[in-house]
Every structure is written in structure tokens, then in C-alpha cells.
Write a structure and sequence with these properties.
mainly alpha, Growth Hormone, Chain: A, about 80% helix
């Protein structure tokens, strides 16, 4: 008998599409940032503060987003979030002062992006996929790269043609007429809602002895309190903080750095788009590799790529060589794409259960705080030194800390699973006596 179509693929397609817009909008701030500085003549620190507020509000609203996903489900949360992003962008296009952009882009848009971001999508995908969790999150996260590849250069083109205000309104309209209705019609909370099991299997999957790195929580039902008292929660929180700081220090200031070093604005936006292209393939690749080799080994390899790409980025401050730009696009583009599938799958592996969305939300606080701090710090360092080289050099440390946090969390998880497995074996042997 032919197996029924697995609805999880529809969920993946929706998550992919949502992430295209989320990454495209966030990545486009780099080109919007340059346009704002030219029009309003703000300092780099003040202009970057808009994105910092966005990241801060995203962080603080993440627990509410996770709770809302667990209580309301994605079919309500995600359309509302898409509508809110559109409202924030539209009102940002009408802004004439720094405080208005801080509120409309920094607050309103950020809350909407939270509902379409890391917390909601990765928690949702973790319910639909277990055996192939890393691969599924990697495939959905390809949308982040495609968003950077398409929307960032397109935003720069629109800004050059119709101005930054009209560009924000165009992005808002696209969200209202695509993302909102699609999620309202087709989102579902979990496979049980459509009479299926995770991964499209004919029965629930349980294999706590697996060595691939995507093992389950061995029957433990996590609560928010027990997560707070656990080592991996705080280890992941630290890694999230460092990862957010490094990613957004580069995301926000890369276009400004390249323009400062003499690149044309459209060329700089195109380079960001190329990095998005590399990320599109990289997220799926690292998700698949993490399912095959384990999260730790895969993320270690990816971190080496990332650090090599950052060295190329720092080198562009000393030499305009195209080889450094090629190295940046290829090495950093591939390497940094591993963060979302690795952290998303690892959190799902460790904290699987009914409270997964809420736990995701609280862990996302530190990523948002790191993003806000990294965005502001990049502009502040530029104002102090007149260059981004020191800010980008600091990213070498942040990505290293991120890897060490992943490694420590997975070591703990492995030991915990082994301890629980030994306990079950002892209990089984005792029952036979």
C-alpha cells in the first residue's frame, strides 16, 4: 500500500518561505543603515542602535513567543506575526526621526520577527521531525540564505530607484499578501493533528542508543524549572550570546565596512547576497552532516570555516584584494550557516517535550541580547577607531566560545543518556531477581 504524503514537507516549505522574508528583512538593514546615515547624518553608533533595539526586543519577547507557540499553535501565531512585521516596516517608512525608527523598526517589527524566527520554526520542526531533525532544520534554514541572496540586493536596488521609505512599504505589502495567508491556511502544530507520526514514519521513533548526535531525552519530560537547573541550558545560553554578538556585528556592519573601504554600494550588497547563496547550500549541508556525524563534530568543522572567513574579512581592511573577498564569501558564507541548524537541532535533542517552545523562547533571550550588543559594539568601535577591523577581529573569539558551548552541552547530554540507559538496565535486571 502506498504511504500517504507526509504533511511535514508542507510545514518545511512554509518555514522555508518564512525564513526567506525574515533573513531578507534583517539582512537588508545593512543597506538601509547606509541610506539612513546618508539622509540623517547620525553617528554609526546611533544608527546601529536601531538594529540593537530590534535585537533586544526580539530577545525579551522570545519567551512569550515560545509560550504562544505551545499554547496557540503556529496557525495563529505565525500569521499574526507576519502582519505585525508588515505594520512595523510600513510605519518605519513614514518615520522622520531616530526615536520613531527605534520604536517602529526596533520594537514593532522585532516582535513580529520573533514569531517568524528561530524559536517558533525550530520548535515546530522539532515536533515534525525526530530522526532527521538536523536535516529538516537545515533545509528550512536554507530560506535564510535565499533571503539574503535575493532580498538584500533587491532592497538596495529599490532604495536606489524609489528611496528607502517606499522600499520598506513594498516589503510590508509583500509580507501581507504572501506570508500571512499562507500560514493561516496551511500551518499545523504537530503530526498528530493530521493523523501522522514524526518523519512520516508508521510508528513513533524511539532510539536512545543512537550515536549520531540526534538522540532523544531518554524519556525525561522537561519543565521550564528543570531546564533552568540544568547545565546545558546555561551552556547553550552562553553560546547563543556569543553567536548572536558575532553574527550581527558582521551582518549589520559588513555593507558599511565594504563601502568605507571603497566598494560600490550595489557591489557591497551583492557580496552580502553571495554570502547568502553560500549559506543556502551550507545550512542543508551542515544539517545533514550533523545527523550523520553528530552535532559536535559537524559544528567544529563549520567553526573552522567561519574563523577562516573572518580572517579574510579582517584582511580586507589592509588590502582590497579580491581573493580576500572570495575567501570571505566562500569560507564565512559556508561556515556561519551551521549555527541555526546546529543549535536548533541540539535544543530539540536535549529538551524534547511539550515545553520545547517555551524553553526555546527563554534560550533565545541570550541570542537576542548578544545580537543587540554586537550590533551596537560594532558601530561604537568604528566611532572610536575609524575602522571595523577590531570589531571583526573580536568575532573570532565569539564564534570560538559558541563552539565550546555546543561541545560542552553535547558531552553532558551524552553522559546523561548513558546514565539513564544504565539505570534502566539495572532496573530491568533487578526485576528478574
Amino acid at each position: 500500500m502506498r504511504a500517504p504524503f507526509f504533511y511535514g514537507y508542507v510545514i518545511l516549505a512554509l518555514c522555508f518561505s518564512n525564513m526567506v522574508f525574515v533573513r531578507g528583512i534583517l539582512g537588508s538593514f545593512g543597506v538601509l543603515y547606509v541610506a539612513l546615515l546618508e539622509e540623517f547624518r547620525w553617528s554609526h553608533g546611533a544608527g546601529a542602535g536601531i538594529a540593537s533595539v530590534n535585537s533586544l526586543i526580539y530577545a525579551l519577547s522570545s519567551p512569550l513567543i515560545g509560550w504562544s507557540l505551545d499554547r496557540l499553535g503556529p496557525r495563529i501565531l505565525m500569521p499574526l506575526s507576519g502582519a505585525l512585521v508588515g505594520i512595523g516596516l510600513f510605519l518605519s517608512g513614514l518615520s522622520n526621526s531616530l526615536w520613531e525608527l527605534y520604536f517602529y523598526y526596533g520594537v514593532v517589527t522585532a516582535i513580529g520577527i520573533g514569531g517568524l524566527g528561530f524559536v517558533s520554526h525550530n520548535a515546530l520542526i522539532s515536533h515534525w521531525f525526530v530522526r532527521r531533525r538536523g536535516s529538516a532544520i537545515g533545509l528550512a534554514t536554507m530560506g535564510l540564505g535565499l533571503g539574503a541572496l535575493i532580498i538584500v540586493p533587491l532592497t538596495q536596488y529599490w532604495i536606489s530607484q524609489v528611496g528607502w521609505r517606499s522600499t520598506l512599504m513594498i516589503l510590508a505589502a509583500v509580507l501581507w499578501f504572501t506570508t500571512v495567508p499562507a500560514n493561516a491556511l496551511w500551518q499545523r502544530r504537530n503530526p498528530q493533528e493530521v493523523g501522522q507520526f514524526p518523519d512520516g514514519d508508521q510508528a513513533p521513533f524511539e532510539d536512545p542508543s543512537s550515536t549520531s548526535g540526534n538522540r532523544q531525552s531518554a524519556g525525561r519530560e522537561w519543565t521550564l524549572g528543570s531546564a533552568f537547573r540544568s547545565f546545558p541550558f546555561w551552556s547553550i545560553a552562553l553560546g547563543h550570546l556569543a553567536l548572536g554578538a558575532g553574527l550581527f556585528m558582521i551582518y549589520t556592519h559588513l555593507v558599511a565596512h565594504l563601502v568605507h573601504e571603497g566598494s560600490d554600494k550595489l557591489v557591497a550588497a551583492f557580496i552580502v547576497g553571495l554570502m547568502g547563496f553560500m549559506r543556502t547550500a551550507g545550512t542543508a549541508f551542515w544539517g545533514l552532516i550533523s545527523d550523520r556525524l553528530g552535532r559536535d563534530q559537524a559544528y567544529g568543522m563549520a567553526t573552522l570555516f567561519t574563523l577562516s572567513g573572518i580572517l579574510c574579512l579582517v584582511a580586507t581592511s589592509f588590502s582590497p584584494s579580491l581573493w580576500f573577498l572570495y575567501g570571505l564569501v566562500i569560507l564565512y558564507g559556508i561556515g556561519h550557516s551551521s549555527g541555526n541548524p546546529t543549535y536548533g537541532a541540539m535544543i530539540g535533542d536535549i529538551f524534547a517535550g511539550k515545553k520545547l517552545g517555551t524553553i526555546f523562547g527563554f534560550l533565545e533571550i541570550t541570542f537576542g541580547l548578544g545580537s543587540a550588543f554586537g550590533t551596537w559594539l560594532g558601530g561604537y568601535i568604528f566611532d572610536l577607531t575609524g575602522s571595523y577591523r577590531w570589531a571583526f577581529s573580536l568575532c573570532i573569539l565569539t564564534f570560538t566560545i559558541s563552539y565550546l558551548a555546543v561541545h560542552a552541552s553535547l558531552v553532558w547530554h551524552g553522559r546523561e543518556l548513558a546514565r539513564r540507559q544504565d539505570g534502566r538496565l539495572i532496573a530491568a535486571d533487578t526485576s528478574r531477581i
